[in-house]
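in:
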């Protein structure tokens, strides 16, 4: 069988897998995981997070790949194609796409920060600050109006250029190269962080569960983070599933991506928490945590610090780029499916999302007092897109997959039309898909909301 997909798919299984992994691995692992884990108490959060990643996140990834490859469509068309007699399910696809749009808005803000930190490492600005100054430096930068906005728009421009360049050429090439380098760099940073004076408190914080710190809200946050980090729930993996080669083994691919994504989040945790404690900072430092702590780690590398810092923020920007690409791609593919030209669609989405992103960015400074309750625009979007919306979308997706979509279609797609053994199917379908995943999603959502 040819590995070439019928649509504008990836040229090889490896390329498609790397692109999906590129979507999963990003700021969610390195920026958001440590900050949320710190906010909700460390070790206990991690334990719950692990369960969600493997029992819910991975199951959803497989489901989305199946839906996407089966229908060769974006979420908006995939659901009604699978059950033409139940056209209302289309709304789930649309809710997912709306979620993608909002996620992209938040994502661009942090991507812009990362790009700026890359630039400041390169020009030596960051290296000239001493360890006590990084907190203030970050706050000053994030609260200024111009710089963060310009950085995020520049980042959006890069993303747009890759999307207009086309799926295969753009995404695949970038993804293939980067992930391995990022992992090696993170490992070196872990070693450094672990050998700082006072690092052990950070290790204990991350790995010794203290369940008294875990609330219903924390469990919901762990679930949201697991889905956010794997890019599942909102239909991005349905779009990428439609690009997967027809002979790709969906179980293997999903497992591989899930393990990688999880491993990188843990590496980020080990790189950051020991340094947080060694430098006397608070693990609850919020969205700026990584940007205030990691420069301290780089400084401790002595003369090599600048090089490390440059390479790290460059790679993190690129990891963010492959995730942002997947979000913009999902939205572009949707409009394209409705008949709009790809390039026009991509530009239109970019224009709209830049408004959201700049507004969110301003909430660290000039619009800091614009609040809903106690939440700024950024906080609100971050909570919505990282905590509430992914589990809601994921719940609806898994209910469709387990109870509405035809079982025969799923078996046929998972087994590549009977050519791959799926001995795991009974446990997967009758246990995880039909019961464990939807029930856990429901319980966590309800308790999280009531909290
Ligand atoms: N998973 C990405 C990350 O961890 C973010 C993302 C979420 C991308 C949802 C696509 C869809 O950075």
């Amino acid at each position: 069988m040819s590995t070439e997909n019928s649509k504008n798919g990836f040229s090889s299984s490896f390329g498609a897998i790397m692109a999906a992994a590129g979507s999963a691995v990003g700021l969610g692992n390195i920026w958001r995981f440590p900050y949320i884990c710190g906010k909700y108490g460390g070790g206990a959060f991690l334990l719950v997070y692990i369960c969600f990643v493997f029992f819910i996140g991975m199951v959803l990834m497989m489901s989305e790949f199946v839906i996407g490859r089966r229908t060769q469509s974006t979420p908006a068309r995939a659901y009604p194609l699978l059950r033409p007699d139940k056209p209302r399910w289309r709304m789930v696809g649309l809710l997912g796409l709306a979620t993608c749009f909002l996620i992209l808005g938040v994502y661009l803000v942090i991507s812009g920060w990362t790009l700026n930190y890359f630039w400041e490492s390169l020009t030596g600005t960051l290296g000239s600050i001493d360890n006590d100054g990084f907190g203030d430096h970050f706050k000053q930068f994030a609260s200024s109006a111009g710089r963060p906005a310009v950085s995020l728009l520049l980042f959006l421009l890069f993303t747009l250029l890759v999307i207009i360049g086309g799926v295969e050429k753009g995404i695949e090439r970038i993804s293939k190269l980067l992930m391995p380098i990022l992992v090696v760099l993170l490992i070196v940073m872990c070693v450094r962080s672990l050998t700082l004076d006072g690092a052990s408190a950070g290790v204990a914080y991350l790995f010794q569960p203290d369940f008294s710190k875990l609330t219903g809200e924390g469990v919901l946050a762990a679930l949201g983070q697991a889905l956010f980090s794997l890019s599942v729930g909102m239909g991005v993996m349905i779009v990428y599933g439609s690009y997967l080669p027809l002979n790709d083994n969906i179980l293997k691919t999903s497992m591989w991506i899930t393990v990688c994504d999880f491993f990188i989040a843990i590496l980020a945790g080990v790189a950051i928490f020991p340094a947080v404690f060694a430098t006397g900072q608070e693990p609850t430092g919020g969205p700026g945590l990584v940007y205030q702590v990691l420069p301290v780690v780089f400084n401790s590398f002595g003369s090599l610090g600048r090089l490390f810092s440059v390479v790290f923020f460059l790679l993190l920007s690129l990891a963010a780029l492959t995730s942002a690409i997947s979000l913009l791609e999902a939205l572009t593919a949707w409009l394209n499916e409705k008949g709009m030209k790809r390039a026009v669609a991509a530009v239109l989405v970019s224009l709209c999302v830049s408004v959201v992103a700049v507004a969110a960015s301003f909430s660290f400074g000039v619009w800091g007092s614009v609040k809903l309750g106690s939440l700024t625009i950024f906080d609100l979007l971050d909570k919505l897109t990282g905590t509430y919306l992914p589990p809601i979308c994921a719940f609806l997706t898994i209910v469709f997959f387990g109870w509405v979509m035809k079982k025969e279609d799923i078996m046929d797609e998972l087994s590549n039309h009977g050519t791959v053994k799926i001995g795991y199917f009974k446990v997967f379908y009758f246990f995880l898909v039909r019961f464990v995943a939807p029930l856990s999603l429901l319980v966590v959502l309800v308790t999280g909301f009531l909290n």
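note: Residues 23-24, 26-29, 103, 228-229, 231, 234, 236, 323, 326-327 surround phenylalanine (CB under 6 Å).
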